[in-house]
Amino acid sequence: MSDQRFAAKTIVITGAGGNFGRAGCIHFAKLGARIAAMDNNDSALLETLREVNDAVDGDAPLIQTYICDVTDPKSVQETVEKISNDFGEINMLWNNAGYQGQIKPTLEYDPVDFARVMNINVTGMFIVLQSVAKKMASQKKADGDTTVSHPFSIVNTASVAALRGTPAMVAYSSSKAAILAMTVSSAKDLAPHGIRVNSISPALIGPGFMWTRQNELHAASGSPYFSSDPEQVAQAKVGGVPMKRLGSIDEVIKSVAYLLSDDSSYTTGTNLVVDGGLSAGLKA
Question: Which InterPro entries match (predicted)?
């Protein structure tokens, strides 16, 4: 099934070896997009490639995989240049690579891990955003487009943790709050270059390994905000959601698709929350 919003468009997806990134590769490949899948894990990327090929029912998806360390400017620049050479142009970026870090109360949190979370989630996201945005801006200039058009789109993966300040996740919450600020500031800087920048903030997505494991880690954290029983942790979380259910990865991907596409052509600097109402009324 081809979708004119994405048909023949090149989408760069970082963190493509993870659950969300892989699902995004599959979703956009089915809609006819050309996928540049980036990750630092070769075996995970190969699995993504296999699942994309299996998902398109015999159609020939155009997907290339790229091993890249998002925290290394040279690695990112070389990868973006290779993507541009392979596909001819870059139209969209889902800036999705990230690291959750430890789940421990602030007094017990390892500063080394805090720095690692910030380096991957914030510095790495900025390096990719800047490198891809430079390529997009040069494409617009090369096309001789002097109109007030915005043909390029970037979506950064943030989190409701940035809005709620999730207990025992001080590094992750801090990194995602930084992404919200990065999104707004870069949206203003890049608008004159025809680039829209928005962010997506999911929460309580499941079921699955990630959902179950996070509940186990919260239960083991010793935080007074979580029961020591993972099942009770899960029940309490869902109980706080006005819609009284978990969200699905597919619901997150569809929200990313909206922000990447021209359906949101007058939207930039915005954070789209996908959490069933959990954070309703909260502001960054």
Answer: NAD(P)-bd_dom_sf, SDR_fam
Can you tell me whether residue 41 is helix, strand or coil?
coil
Residue length of the chain: 284
Six-digit token pair at 59? Answer: 């159609």
Strand partners, 37: 13, 65
- pTM equals 0.95
The C-alpha atoms of residue 283 and residue 274 are separated, in whole angstroms, by 14
d(CA 282, CA 280): 6
The answer to whether the beta carbons of residues 15 and 96 sit under 8 Å apart is yes
Compute the Cα dihedral for 200, 169, 15, 249 and give only its sign: negative
Do residues 116 and 230 touch, judged by C-beta distance below 8 A? no
- The greatest distance separating any two alpha carbons of the chain, rounded to the nearest whole angstrom, comes to 61
- 231 Cβ partners below 8 Å, 6+ apart? 215
